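Cross-posting from the chemistry board since nobody answered there.

I work mostly on the small-molecule side, so proteins are not my area. We synthesized 2-acetamido-2-deoxy-beta-D-glucopyranose and want a rough idea of how it might sit in this target. Sequence and SMILES are below. Is it possible to get a predicted 3D structure of the two together?
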Amino acid sequence: MKFGFPMAFTATILSWAILEYGDHMKQVKELDHIQDSLKWITDYLINAHPSDNVLYIQVGDPELDHKCWERPEVMTERRPLTQVNISYPGTDVAAETAAAMASASLVFRKKNPAYSKLLLKHAEQLFNFADTYRGTYSISTPQVQKYYNSTGYGDELLWAAAWLYHATGDHTYLRYVTVKNGNSFANWGIPTWFCWDNKLAGTQIKFLWFERYPRCRNIALQLYRKTAEAVLCGLLPSSTTPTSQRTDGGLIWVSEWNVLQYSVASAFLALVYSDYMLTSQTKTLYCNGELYQPMDLRKFALSQADYILGSNPMKMSYLVGYGSYFPQYVHHRGASIPKDANTSCSDGFKWLNSTDPNPNVAIGALVGGPFLNDTYSDSRNNSQQGEPTTYNSALIVGLLSGLITSSSVVQSFT
Ligand SMILES: *[C@@H]1O[C@H](CO)[C@@H](O)[C@H](O)[C@H]1NC(C)=O
Ligand SMILES: *[C@@H]1O[C@H](CO)[C@@H](O)[C@H](O)[C@H]1NC(C)=O
Ligand SMILES: *[C@@H]1O[C@H](CO)[C@@H](O)[C@H](O)[C@H]1NC(C)=O
Ligand SMILES: *[C@@H]1O[C@H](CO)[C@@H](O)[C@H](O)[C@H]1NC(C)=O
Ligand SMILES: *[C@@H]1O[C@H](CO)[C@@H](O)[C@H](O)[C@H]1NC(C)=O
Ligand SMILES: *[C@@H]1O[C@H](CO)[C@@H](O)[C@H](O)[C@H]1NC(C)=O
């Protein structure tokens, strides 16, 4: 299955991670790999956008697909395409794809200028399509609701416009996010969790960066700042307004399904903001009467990374392949089926049913994560806890890259 909505978000996050922490990635000789992974996605997204107002948002039929358990390399089943267009619009998915392409155009600006221009052209067309033909993609194509249901498109419009502003410097986009649409979509004052469905917190944190340019200072940006601060203050465990959505072991815990996406996304935002504070010489974060330093945010980010890598009550690393004790029954077809097995669609389920550990290790996969009581059930059909996703991987790449060194003066941000 190719699910376009979370895949585009994956690309946006990878781009953001590279823009912030490309220098760190280079130090550990991973920058080329990460750029290649990003290009793998953006090449696909370019192909998925064959004309201005058409975007293919899904390859495969999830109902049929879930009746099979087989290796992707040997699949022969039909994989039908689903698109959004002017009669069946998908503002959220088109805008997220625009964000992915605009952010990636920044990544490739020096390395591959022609490709960067191409991405930017697609991004602007897609944003225009998203904004002109408004509709939630999971209402236009209700069959996607069971998998990647979208709860609205206002956040993606703001997020995409923020990235387009960054990529083009065109003030129209800044006005779009602030005076034109802030009131309708920004949900100021209400902290939210950053994830594939909701980009508001990411947009707020990103906008703090633009405040360093005096021409960008306005009331709307102040409201973005206040909301971003509310998000960050909630994350700090010792603040006067800490979120209660946390396990006893200290992990941000928001939902039974794929909880780690929220923990890692929160940690990534806190880390990025702590680095913005250092580069912009903002000494303190004000939380309801208390003042915090960049180091407090960094410590929080580190606490989430440490938990995920094994400092937790289970003493388990949730990053597959890392440490000596990590999930052995990841919900992953390629990992669970031996490489020379000749099983097809339905008889492949014997590999899902098998009680043996996965024969292949999906190195680098970040699973869904623990229950609220800090425990984890390592069982192959436990997709709620044991299914890795591309967006989890992109987020953990961002978080770990940011933690590689504590030299926080961001140089790669263009
Ligand atoms: C527009 O998208 C809908 C939903 O995916 C699809 O059923 C329809 O065929 C598309 N329209 C055209 C002209 O392809
Ligand atoms: C999808 O989201 C919409 C909007 O939030 C909601 O009304 C609908 O019930 C959701 N569908 C499913 C299957 O959860
Ligand atoms: C799978 O099929 C290939 C080619 O048809 C054959 O060479 C191989 O031995 C088969 N493997 C198993 C485990 O049966
Ligand atoms: C796998 O287990 C399910 C549920 O127990 C069973 O219905 C199915 O037949 C099994 N499939 C195979 C191929 O072993
Ligand atoms: C932890 O929570 C899960 C899910 O609610 C539950 O199934 C499990 O029994 C709990 N484990 C312990 C040790 O309380
Ligand atoms: C795996 O879990 C799904 C969803 O909970 C369930 O429908 C299916 O029957 C389970 N399969 C097996 C083999 O246990």
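Reply from a structural biologist on the board:
Welcome over. Reading the output above for you: The first helix runs from residue 4 to 27. The two ends are 34 Å apart (CA to CA). Happy to explain the token format if needed.
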